[in-house]
Write a structure and sequence with these properties.
14 strands; alpha+beta
Length: 248
């Protein structure tokens, strides 16, 4: 099974660019999306080349949203909303052959870190959700660069959303408590300049001044089933590029 994950920065927008060409070229069995910015009824009306389609959307129109598109029928699929949190469409899940696939779009702490406290509350509840999932493959825009090697300019970003000490510590706790592996980093421990998001400002992508904030996290019990994982940084169309994982 080849799974891709992509923050598309608007599903309608990416369909008008290179979405169909991406699907034709990469041939994902399952495609997880983040920041779809579309409600489920509207999404169901789109011509998408997948047999099974599951969407989670925010109550706020044009905001957030995740999806799982699949040509393999899952045993079960749907939306998860963490207890006590607003409906922002941040988690879509599907159960396949011994694991739960989770497409996640983690809240951004925003400029001035005005949403950092809420982000920490969400992180804690997300950890507990994942601990209850059993074996899991978690993918998506997790909005954190875990270590210095995960961004081009760590020295100037310690107070930036996505690279605060608090967010990085929470990510470490997620890996530990949910028994997950950042499988690409573990297989490529010294790979530098490997990013998944670039600002639209100042030609950041052409200069590869980026951040690695899109992941596949895999339960350690499943690591023997992982055949390949990678970063498709040649795919344009969004400020993020896709990441992928092959699992038997």
């Amino acid at each position: 099974m080849k799974i891709y994950s992509w923050n598309v920065n608007g599903l309608r927008a990416i369909i008008g660019k290179n979405f169909l060409e991406f699907v034709s070229e990469c041939k994902p069995d399952v495609l997880c999306l983040q920041e779809t910015r579309i409600d489920s009824p509207a999404a169901e009306g789109l011509d998408l080349p997948f047999k099974y389609r599951f969407f989670s959307h925010a109550d706020k129109k044009g905001y957030s949203g995740t999806a799982i598109l699949s040509n393999i029928e899952p045993e079960r699929a749907g939306e998860a909303v963490l207890d006590g949190h607003p409906k922002e469409g941040r988690i879509t899940y599907a159960d396949f052959g011994g694991f739960r696939l989770v497409s996640a779009y983690v809240p951004n702490s925003q400029d001035g870190l005005k949403r950092l406290k809420y982000r920490q509350e969400w992180d804690a509840d997300f950890i507990e959700y994942l601990r209850g999932c059993g074996n899991a493959v978690v993918c998506g825009d997790l909005n954190v660069a875990h270590n210095d090697i995960h961004l081009a300019r760590p020295e100037s970003n310690h107070m930036s959303a996505g690279f605060t000490d608090e967010e990085r510590a929470d990510f470490s706790e997620l890996l530990r408590k949910a028994k997950l592996s950042d499988v690409w980093r573990e297989r490529n421990p010294d790979a530098a300049n490997a990013y998944t998001w670039w600002s639209y400002r100042g030609g950041a992508r052409s200069r590869n001044v980026g951040w690695r904030i899109d992941y596949f996290l895999v339960s350690r019990a499943l690591l023997g089933r992982v055949e390949d994982c990678g970063i498709a940084n040649n795919i344009m169309g969004s400020d993020h590029c896709p990441v992928y994982l092959s699992i038997d």
